[in-house]
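[step 3/7] inverse_fold.run input=structure_tokens len=192
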């Protein structure tokens, strides 16, 4: 990578006279990378038979309520969905596989028919209104979908979350979907 006979500068300092232009170019390049991520995911799927999109959707086609989550908690949410659907709650899951660039349009299209959404954040953003995933999703779907969105901050410090816990969350947002009443938009789940 380094060629002493042909030196180059990588990551030069950008002073105030061009700094804004550089940052805008970085932003535009990152936005364009979403298409590349999708294309590579499809190509990988064609080769291996395992498709990796920016999002994983589970039983969202007829869902009235949904949970949006990152990471391994999605497996627990899937198990809870299978259980709670037997009780008549049309629940679904949206798992984000990509956080940057944020797949805004895919999220809007996936959640456009649900009435209430629980965002599950496994981190907090101190001093902010909710966790990072909540902030991103809520601002992305603002005025695009008609659903109440509640943040559940959970699992901090490695605290476990169970299928029963997820069912409690689904029951809460199911009630919200019927009443459109939300007491707290940001909740710390299972805090003693």
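[step 3/7] decode complete -> sequence:
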């Amino acid at each position: 990578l380094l060629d002493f006979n042909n030196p180059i500068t990588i990551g030069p300092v950008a002073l105030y006279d061009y700094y804004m232009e550089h940052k805008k170019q970085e932003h535009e390049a990152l936005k364009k990378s979403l298409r590349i991520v999708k294309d590579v995911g499809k190509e990988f799927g064609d080769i291996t038979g395992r498709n990796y999109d920016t999002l994983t959707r589970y039983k969202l086609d007829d869902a009235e309520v949904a949970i949006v989550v990152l990471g391994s908690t999605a497996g627990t949410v899937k198990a809870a969905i299978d259980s709670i659907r037997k009780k008549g709650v049309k629940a679904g899951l949206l798992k984000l596989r990509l956080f940057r660039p944020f797949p805004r349009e895919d999220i809007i299209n996936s959640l456009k028919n649900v009435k209430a959404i629980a965002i599950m954040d496994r981190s907090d953003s101190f001093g902010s209104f909710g966790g990072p995933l909540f902030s991103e999703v809520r601002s992305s779907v603002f005025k695009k979908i008609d659903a109440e969105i509640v943040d559940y901050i959970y699992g901090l410090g490695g605290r476990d979350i169970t299928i029963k816990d997820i069912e409690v969350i689904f029951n809460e947002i199911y009630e919200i979907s019927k009443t459109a009443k939300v007491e707290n938009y940001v909740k710390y789940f299972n805090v003693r």
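[step 4/7] annotate
The first helix runs from residue 19 to 48.
The chain has a mean pLDDT of 95.
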